[in-house]
Specification:
single chain, Pantoate--beta-alanine Ligase, Chain: A,domain 2, 2 domains, 6-stranded parallel sheet, 3-stranded antiparallel sheet, 9 strands, globular
C-alpha cells in the first residue's frame, strides 16, 4: 500500500489510473478505523480495481468547542488495517495543504444542512463536509464513493452534492455496522466510560421499539416520539432530537409510512451519538 500526503501527487496517481482505464473507489474517512470502516473498504474493493482511502481529520467541519483536538488519531494503526483490507492508497493530506491561508471557498447544500437534524446544533458541520468532499472528488475523481449509513443526514447531503454538481460519480451507502450488543460503531465510542456505554444501548433499543410499534400499526410520529424520549431519558441519556423524516428530502413526516427514517441524536455523558433506521 502506498501512502500519499501531497495533493498533486494524489491527483497524478489518480490521473494515471484513469488513463490506464482503471476504476477508482474512494472511502473518505477521518481515521481511527473500526470494523465499520473496514466494511466500507471491503465493499470498495468489490466496486473498483483501485481503492483509495482518505484519512483526514477535517478541521472545518468542527465548530469551536467541539472535539477537533481530542479526536482519536493513530495513523500507523490505520495504515496497517487499511493495508490488510487491500487498500491501494492511503491519502493523508495536511490541513495546511487542504486549506492554505488563501483558501476562501465553502460549499453548502441548502435545505439539508443547517436546517434539519444534526445541522440545528452543528450549523457549520455539513458545509465543512461538503467542502472537503468537493476537494477530494476534484483531486481523485473517483468512479465510486463509499459511505456508511449511520451518518444518514451526511449521506443525503453527499448525494445531493454529487447530483447538483453533475459529478460522474456513484455514491454507495453501506448499512450501519454494529457492535454485538447493537451499538452503532463509531470512532467516538472510545470517549465513553463503561457506564456511559451501557446507557448508550438505549439508542438501538429505541430503534427496535419503534419498529415493533410501527409493525403493530402506529403511524403517529408525535405519540411515538414521546414514548421513545421517555425511554432515552430513563436510561440517563440527554436526547437532542427524535425525528421521523423523508429519506430523500429529510422533511418531517406527518405520518409514518414504509421507508420513513427514524433519526436519533443523544448524549451519553459528553459523547454525542447518532443512530437511525428505516421503518
Amino acid at each position: 500500500m502506498e501512502i500519499i500526503t501531497q495533493l498533486e501527487a494524489m491527483r497524478g496517481w489518480a490521473e494515471r489510473r484513469r488513463r490506464e482505464g482503471g476504476r477508482i473507489a474512494l472511502v473518505p474517512t477521518m481515521g481511527y478505523f473500526h470494523e465499520g470502516h473496514l466494511h466500507l473498504m471491503r465493499l470498495a474493493a468489490t466496486q473498483a480495481r483501485h481503492v483509495v482511502v482518505s484519512l483526514f481529520v477535517n478541521p472545518i467541519q468542527f465548530a469551536p468547542g467541539e472535539d477537533l483536538a481530542d479526536y482519536p488519531r493513530d495513523r500507523q494503526r490505520d495504515a496497517d488495517l487499511a493495508a490488510d483490507c487491500g487498500v491501494e492508497v492511503l491519502f493523508c493530506p495536511e490541513p495546511e495543504a487542504m486549506y492554505p491561508p488563501t483558501f476562501r471557498t465553502s460549499v453548502t447544500v441548502t435545505g439539508l444542512s443547517s436546517e434539519v437534524l444534526c445541522g440545528r446544533s452543528r450549523p457549520t458541520h455539513f458545509t465543512g463536509v461538503a467542502t472537503v468532499l468537493t476537494k477530494l472528488f476534484n483531486l481523485i475523481r473517483p468512479h465510486k464513493a463509499i459511505f456508511g449509513e449511520k451518518d444518514f443526514q451526511q449521506l443525503a447531503v453527499i448525494r445531493a452534492l454529487v447530483r447538483d454538481l453533475n459529478w460522474d460519480l456513484e455514491v454507495v451507502g453501506h448499512p450501519i455496522v454494529r457492535e454485538a450488543d447493537g451499538l452503532a460503531m463509531s470512532s467516538r465510542n472510545v470517549y465513553m466510560t463503561k457506564e456511559q456505554r451501557q446507557a448508550a444501548l438505549a439508542l438501538p433499543r429505541a430503534l427496535e421499539e419503534a419498529r415493533r410499534m410501527v409493525a403493530a400499526g402506529e403511524t403517529n410520529p408525535e405519540g411515538l416520539r414521546r414514548q421513545l424520549a421517555a425511554g432515552l431519558e430513563q436510561a440517563g441519556l440527554k436526547w437532542e432530537y427524535i425525528e421521523f423524516v423523508d429519506p430523500d428530502s429529510l422533511a418531517a413526516a406527518e405520518s409514518i409510512t414504509p421507508g420513513t427514517v427514524l433519526a436519533l441524536a443523544a448524549r451519553s455523558g459528553k459523547t454525542r451519538l447518532i443512530d437511525n433506521c428505516r421503518l
